[in-house]
């Protein structure tokens, strides 16, 4: 039984170093993080700072070299790959920048797959899929293959796939990274909409627009958290507020 | 403000209040409420430099309106304005000066400065988003204006990141 | 579980071709293994059945008429005795032809070696001229109970009252006389006796023979036949067929295992992204492994069950020996066990190779990687660079480079493709060898096509003149065949004297040289193995009661009598026995002559005094082998196809990555297609060369090994003709190129946007 104060996600002392061909890269160096239910957190930072690695650690896709993660108060230190996979079915939804969809499966299959994995009956899975696709404006594309969709449509399907089981936590890694500005706006709108319904979202992005849609922005530099700011709409407007930006020169 | 007013008058003669309304309509709620007084002052200056000419029009129940129209000199000035390219926007040199001088004054930490500025930008960005959401969808000019501001903000934020990277390296 | 099924189902839809091929290949392999089992059962069992039912004699001794064979009952190790029965060698003729037979006089049915009546009835004192024929003799003479047989050259007539099965060595025209039981009164001029011994210890035949010879004296012994000989002769061809089927079946199973492993590994490599996404969605590694494993197990199971069902129900409908084998096999006790074990074994083997590959799928990291890491490939070699400079089409150079630079992977692909091709080369060698038996028998140990027996009315010179006068006859060699006791006196062998010093017989030599001087001889492999001697040794044997010492100077290829033949010239034998008359003439024909025609002509010219038969060709019994070889080639070709499709799929998928770069360089879509096609064709070419290089020696070794174990002797192996090999190579390379063309063309023309999403 989770009360509203138990963080959906808590991490302490996460460390991850990549050993590639050259010198080892310290992607994550001692990160502490806490996400409360219903929060929308954005993590920004320059590329190569380790944001994606942090997200992978939080989703159980990679094992941290040191540190612990708690999901809904449960420690995940002892989880092996199979156990994390089970978590990802029900408790975590993940959206990546590319390659969200299985290329051999139709859109409908892609969206229903996590539900079936979680043990939901095919009928309920189909209902959930229809609801989500309608919500995301993708009716009529159930039978298409991912290769036939545009980038923006693929990301929307990916969102549907991630949310079909109504997971408490949604992890998104540069969801608009490969989209144009129109696609970015769509993604932003959808994320905002789901956030309004109470979805907890952890978003990694370098797009300031997307980041500004969040309640909280964490700046990630060189493997460490440099700043953790609550966005509150800002100080009372100086001068004419935002018009300061828009002001026409005299 | 001068040349936009000239441009508005190129359509045809109009008086000050009409011009204010035109501006509002064009730019939508993104543009702050134009100050009527400021418009009249600008119109006066334009008339003094001979770019426009005003005529009093008698009104029955109100004080006289002054209707302005464009002169040839004004049209010439307008054409010249359209032909010249605009300057690039200035880099926020006030902030940059603060950043560069911070170590010497010992009064502020550079990283903290950057973080604060970033928060400011992000909040502004958030407000712009809200504005865009509230704005009428058909007003394309308005949306373009907001998007332009957002892109500038993005550029500023990217630049902040670069600054932070460079500074972190030095440490 | 449902999710797994959903994914497996759509995976099947995209890989239908591969699935079908795998099912068919497994079916073919299981069918061949089952047929091999059937043939093995068929080979041993009928003879075993007859032997047990007939209470067969372990040793059959032919002695002179005067020997006191009744003494043998008291010998050590002898359980019971049949006979002695008087025997006479006569020639019998019927509408179906002639045969040399041994007429055996017996009144009641023997207790040991009891003939099992299959039609008609046993001898009846009421019909003094009634005889019972052994079943194979009856089949060759085309007689049934009620027919009449004549003895040519006399007025004697015999009536067939019954046909029976016997466990003794069966009738072989020209090699062994047939067996006819008659009442003692009908055996008018007995020239020998026959005794059958049943031993307490069946393995002790050598010792028993020794004691019998000691008891009776070497001079009294004629031919000795043991039950092992009889069994080997009865099994003969069927055993060989079974071995061939079994060998190819197992080889094909291994090849299929590799092919499946390769297919899965390549598929995984191409689907790394998808597997990562599935893991990110929540598939556990175990589930991923299970999907691949179960998918392929199901295909294999499907194929295996289908094959077992088909073989079980329709197997006996197959024409020829295979059908008979399945028929008999179904009544054998081990039948249901085999029908169950063989398919399960094949499926388990494929499951094991699948499991190995599938395990790798489970280890794919759940993080989707933008570019699946390609193993570092080498740069363009200097040769390649120069070729490009010399205006060789760039597609060819790049294709070559693509096929051969990723060392471990390209070697693996070539090796896996070479395996079925290698087996096909072996199969083609087998086919060619069988062909040679029919086409050029003189190379395979049968330099003469006809054997002619003259009866006593014709003198030696007359007979020879008569034969050599006939058109299309190149030469007639006089010869004689006697049974000789080997040193140790544990068995008898056939000692032949063929040809004279003036006209030496053209033996087909595999080792050593021809016998020229006196006391020199050539021997077959079977004899060398039996006596444990080698070429160059001296052998001492007893003919009648005379010793004969011979120097073995060469090894000949001897298809008769399981190779247990030693041949020398007539002069050598005449040295010991000056009065020796040739009993048979071996006739060599002109090239291109038809033996049957010439035989008929000689028959007519001989006017009843000549008994002509064609020399038995060991390949006659192997005619089902051709059908078997064809079937195995089909199965192996299927496996090769699976492998080829895998290689093509992998190459095409890897090529997608480079599509943009190649277009930027300036290659047209057609050239880009040519790159992939060249790479595939190059792999196929390398595989064919490797398969030929390894397969020809392997085939030679296998066929020669089979030859020497069967006694014919090593040296019969014939490789496929260069034309056939060239055909195989061209078919493989062109087929590979053609198969690769369609998917490569499709990939080259894909819209750029699609490629980006596939690769990015």
TrEMBL record, chain A:
Against CDD domains, the record matches this protein to: ABC_MJ0796_LolCDE_FtsE
The record's InterPro entries line, in alphabetical order, gives: AAA+_ATPase, ABC_transporter-like_ATP-bd, ABC_transporter-like_CS, ABC_transpr_LolD-like, MacB-like_ATP-bd, P-loop_NTPase
Q: Kindly state one GO CC term assigned in the UniProt record.
A: plasma membrane
Q: Which GO terms describe its molecular function?
A: ATP binding; ATP hydrolysis activity; transmembrane transporter activity
Instruction: State the coiled-coil residue ranges.
Output: none
Ranges of residues in domain ABC transporter: 9-247
Transcription recorded as keyword = no
Q: What superkingdom heads the lineage?
A: Bacteria
Which UniProt key words apply to this protein?
ATP-binding, Nucleotide-binding, Transport
Task: List, alphabetically, the PROSITE patterns matched.
Answer: ABC_TRANSPORTER_1 (PS00211), ABC_TRANSPORTER_2 (PS50893)
Any Pfam family hit = ABC_tran
Family statement: Belongs to the ABC transporter superfamily.
Q: What is this protein called?
A: ABC transporter ATP-binding protein
From TrEMBL, chain B:
Superkingdom as given in the UniProt entry: Bacteria
Question: Which residue ranges does the record assign to the Transcription regulator PadR N-terminal domain?
Answer: 5-79
The record places domain Transcription regulator PadR C-terminal at 91-168
Gene3D superfamilies, per database record: 6.10.140.190, Winged helix-like DNA-binding domain superfamily/Winged helix DNA-binding domain (1.10.10.10)
Question: What InterPro entries does the annotation carry?
Answer: Tscrpt_reg_PadR_C, Tscrpt_reg_PadR_N, WH-like_DNA-bd_sf, WH_DNA-bd_sf
Under PANTHER family, the record lists: TRANSCRIPTION REGULATOR, PADR-LIKE FAMILY, TRANSCRIPTIONAL REGULATOR YQJI
Q: What's the protein called, per UniProt? A: PadR family transcriptional regulator
Record lineage: Bacteria, Bacillati, Actinomycetota, Actinomycetes, Kitasatosporales
UniProtKB/TrEMBL annotation, chain C:
The record's listing under Pfam families reads: FtsX (PF02687), MacB_PCD (PF12704)
Residue ranges of domain MacB-like periplasmic core in the record: 23-168, 453-604
GO MF term set: transmembrane transporter activity
Task: Just give the chief location class.
Answer: membrane
Which InterPro entries does this entry report, sorted A to Z? Answer: ABC3_permease_C, MacB_PCD, Macrolide_Exporter_MacB
Q: Does the keyword Transmembrane helix apply?
A: yes
What is the membrane topology listed in the Swiss-Prot or TrEMBL record? Multi-pass membrane protein
Location(s) in or outside the cell: Cell membrane
Q: Where is the ABC3 transporter permease C-terminal domain?
A: 247-364, 632-745
**Transmembrane segment boundaries:** 20-43, 240-264, 297-317, 337-359, 413-434, 627-652, 672-703, 723-742
Which of UniProt's keywords are assigned here?
A: Cell membrane, Membrane, Transmembrane, Transmembrane helix
GO cellular component annotations, sorted alphabetically?
A: plasma membrane
Q: Which family does it belong to?
A: Belongs to the ABC-4 integral membrane protein family.
Task: Provide the protein name.
Answer: Peptide ABC transporter permease
């Amino acid at each position: 039984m989770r009360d509203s104060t138990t963080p959906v996600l808590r991490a302490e002392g996460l460390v991850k170093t990549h050993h590639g061909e050259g010198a080892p890269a310290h992607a994550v160096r001692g990160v502490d993080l806490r996400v409360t239910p219903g929060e929308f957190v954005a993590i920004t930072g320059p590329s190569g700072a380790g944001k994606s690695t942090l997200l992978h650690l939080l989703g159980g896709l990679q094992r941290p070299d040191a540190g612990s993660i708690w999901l809904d108060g449960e420690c995940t230190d002892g989880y092996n790959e199979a156990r994390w996979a089970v978590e990802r079915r029900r408790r975590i939804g993940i959206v990546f920048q590319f390659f969200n969809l299985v290329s051999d499966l139709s859109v409908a299959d892609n969206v229903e797959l996590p539900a079936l994995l979680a043990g939901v009956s095919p009928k309920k899975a189909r209902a959930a899929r229809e609801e989500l696709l309608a919500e995301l404006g993708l009716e009529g594309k159930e039978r298409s293959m991912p290769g036939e969709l545009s980038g923006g449509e693929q990301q929307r399907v990916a969102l549907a796939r991630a949310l079909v089981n109504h997971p408490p936590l949604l992890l998104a890694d540069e969801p608009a990274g490969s989209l144009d500005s129109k696609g970015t706006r769509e993604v932003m709108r959808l994320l905002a909409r789901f956030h309004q319904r109470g979805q907890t979202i952890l978003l990694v992005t370098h797009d300031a627009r997307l980041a500004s849609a969040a309640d909280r922005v964490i700046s990630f530099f060189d493997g460490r958290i440099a700043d953790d700011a609550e966005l509150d709409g800002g100080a009372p407007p100086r001068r004419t507020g935002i018009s300061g930006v828009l002001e026409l020169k005299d | 403000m001068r040349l936009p007013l000239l441009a508005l008058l190129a359509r045809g003669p109009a008086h000050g209040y009409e011009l204010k309304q035109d501006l509002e309509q064009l730019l939508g709620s993104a543009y702050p409420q134009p100050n009527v007084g400021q418009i009249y002052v600008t119109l006066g200056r334009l008339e003094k430099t001979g770019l426009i000419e005003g005529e009093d029009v008698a009104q029955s129940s109100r004080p006289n309106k002054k209707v302005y129209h464009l002169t040839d000199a004004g049209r010439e000035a307008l054409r010249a304005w359209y032909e010249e390219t605009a300057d690039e926007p200035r880099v926020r040199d006030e902030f940059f000066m603060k950043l560069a001088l911070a170590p010497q004054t010992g009064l502020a930490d550079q990283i903290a400065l950057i973080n604060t500025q970033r928060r400011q930008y992000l909040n502004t960005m958030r407000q712009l988003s809200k504005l865009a959401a509230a704005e009428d969808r058909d007003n394309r000019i308005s949306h373009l204006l907001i998007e332009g501001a957002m892109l500038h903000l993005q550029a500023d934020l990217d630049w902040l990141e670069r600054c932070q990277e460079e500074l972190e390296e030095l440490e | 579980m449902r999710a797994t099924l959903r994914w497996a189902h759509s995976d099947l839809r995209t890989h239908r071709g591969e699935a079908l091929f795998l099912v068919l290949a497994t079916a073919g392999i299981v069918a061949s293994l089952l047929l091999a089992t059937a043939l093995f059962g068929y080979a041993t069992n009928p003879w075993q059945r007859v032997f047990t039912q007939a209470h067969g004699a372990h040793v059959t001794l032919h002695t002179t008429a005067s020997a006191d064979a009744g003494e043998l009952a008291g010998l050590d190790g002898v359980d019971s005795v049949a006979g002695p029965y008087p025997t006479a060698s006569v020639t019998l003729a019927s509408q179906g032809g002639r045969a040399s037979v041994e007429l055996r006089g017996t009144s009641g049915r023997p207790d040991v070696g009891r003939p099992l009546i299959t039609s008609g009835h046993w001898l009846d004192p009421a019909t003094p001229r009634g005889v019972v024929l052994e079943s194979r003799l009856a089949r060759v003479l085309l007689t049934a109970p009620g027919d009449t047989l004549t003895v040519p050259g006399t007025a004697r007539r015999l009536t067939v009252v019954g046909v029976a099965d016997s466990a003794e060595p069966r009738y072989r025209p020209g090699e062994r006389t047939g067996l006819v039981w008659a009442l003692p009164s009908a055996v008018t001029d007995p020239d020998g006796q026959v005794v059958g011994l049943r031993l307490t210890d069946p393995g002790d035949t050598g010792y028993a023979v020794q004691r019998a010879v000691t008891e009776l004296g070497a001079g009294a012994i004629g031919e000795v036949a043991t039950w092992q000989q009889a069994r080997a002769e009865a099994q003969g061809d069927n055993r060989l067929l079974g071995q061939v089927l079994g060998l190819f079946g197992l080889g094909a199973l291994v090849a299929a295992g590799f092919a499946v492993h390769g297919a899965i590994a390549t598929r995984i490599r191409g689907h790394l992204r998808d597997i990562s996404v599935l893991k990110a969605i929540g598939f556990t590694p175990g589930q991923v492994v299970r999907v691949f494993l179960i998918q392929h197990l199901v295909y294999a199971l499907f194929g295996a069950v289908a094959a077992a069902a088909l073989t079980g129900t329709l197997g006996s409908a197959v024409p020829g020996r295979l059908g008979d084998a399945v028929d008999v096999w179904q009544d054998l006790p081990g039948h249901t066990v085999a029908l169950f074990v063989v398919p399960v074994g094949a499926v388990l083997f494929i499951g094991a190779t699948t499991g190995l590959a599938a395990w790798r799928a489970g280890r794919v990291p759940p993080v989707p990687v933008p570019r699946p890491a390609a193993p570092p490939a080498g740069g363009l070699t200097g040769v390649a660079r120069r070729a490009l400079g010399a205006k060789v089409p760039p597609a060819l150079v790049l294709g070559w480079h693509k096929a051969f630079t990723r060392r471990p992977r390209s070697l693996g692909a070539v090796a896996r493709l070479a395996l079925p091709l290698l087996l096909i080369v072996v199969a083609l060698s087998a086919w060619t060898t069988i062909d040679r038996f029919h086409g050029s028998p003189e190379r395979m140990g049968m330099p003469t096509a006809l054997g002619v027996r003259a009866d006593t009315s014709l003198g030696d010179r007359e007979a020879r003149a008569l034969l050599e006068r006939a058109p299309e006859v190149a030469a007639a060699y006089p010869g004689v065949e006697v049974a000789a006791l080997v040193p140790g006196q544990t068995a008898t062998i056939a000692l032949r004297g063929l040809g004279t010093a003036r006209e030496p017989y053209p033996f087909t030599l595999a080792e050593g040289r021809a016998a020229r001087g006196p006391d020199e001889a050539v021997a077959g492999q079977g004899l060398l193995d039996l006596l444990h001697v080698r070429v160059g040794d001296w052998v001492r044997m007893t003919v009648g009661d005379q010793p004969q010492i011979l120097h073995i100077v060469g090894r000949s290829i001897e298809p008769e009598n399981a190779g247990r033949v030693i041949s020398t010239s007539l002069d050598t034998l005449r040295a010991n026995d000056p009065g020796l008359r040739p009993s048979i003439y071996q006739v060599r024909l002109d090239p291109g002559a038809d033996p049957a025609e010439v035989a008929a002509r000689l028959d007519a010219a001989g006017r009843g005094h000549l008994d002509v038969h064609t020399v038995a060709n060991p390949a006659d019994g192997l005619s089902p082998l051709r059908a078997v070889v064809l079937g195995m080639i089909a199965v192996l070709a299927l496996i090769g196809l699976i492998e080829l499709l895998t290689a093509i799929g992998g190459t095409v998928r890897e090529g997608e990555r480079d599509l943009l770069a190649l277009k930027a360089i300036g290659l047209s879509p057609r050239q880009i297609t040519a790159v992939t096609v060249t790479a595939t064709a190059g792999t196929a070419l390398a595989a064919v060369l490797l398969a030929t290089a390894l397969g020809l020696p392997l085939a030679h070794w296998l066929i020669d090994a089979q030859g020497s174990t069967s006694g014919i002797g090593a040296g019969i192996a014939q490789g496929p003709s260069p034309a056939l090999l060239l055909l195989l190579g061209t078919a493989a390379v062109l087929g590979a190129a053609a198969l690769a063309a369609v998917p490569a063309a499709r990939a080259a023309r894909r819209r750029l946007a699609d490629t980006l999403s596939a690769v990015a």
